[in-house]
Amino acid sequence: MSISTPKRKKRYRFLPTILFVITYFLVQLYNYNLTLFGFVLAFILSAIGVTYLIKTSKFVSKHLSTSLLNIDEISDPEFNQLLVPIFQRQGYSVNKTKQNRKSTANLILRKKGLKAIVHTKRQSNNVGSSFIQEAIACKEMYQAKRSIIVTNRHFTKAAKQVARANKVTLIDRDSLDAMLDAFLRQKRSHRFIQRVRTLFMNEEIKSDS
Fold this sequence. Notes:
The protein is of the alpha/beta class. It has helices spanning about 15-30, 35-55, 65-70, 75-90, 130-140, 155-165, 175-185, 190-209, and strands spanning about 95, 105-110, 115-120, 145-150, 170.
């Protein structure tokens, strides 16, 4: 059982060709009409400047996940619910568990007869090895073949070593962001994203309470 964390596709493959065409056009325009050349050049530079400001603005992030879903500020139940459709998109059957133990798993995944448990850890600092060991201890209780730990932060070096030795799958902030981004990119409208943030999560949380 494997969890796919999509890699970013290479962008701007045709950028050299586009730059060549623009440069050629500007040179021809310069020779034809200097005033018109100035207006066109000013427009191009302004468009580049505005695009850069939009991309670097705190209101618009490269990753839809961090800018629209605010994974650092949502509650733990919302964080868990957010992962459900992401794993389902990858072909897993997902069940949430009742939170009645300190070290209990948060989600149970099933796919092709294999069973995995998911532990979520949303906090302000990196996840250490002690939490990894707790997750390993839970695996036998759930009779699972694999343990997966998802966090909104990163894992310490010791945590990675323990996870590697026990074949625990770690999904840190970067991997989670890529998974969220890939999932949300399939949903074209902001209306859907808003539904994920409000109706979808909140209704599920109400039904569990």
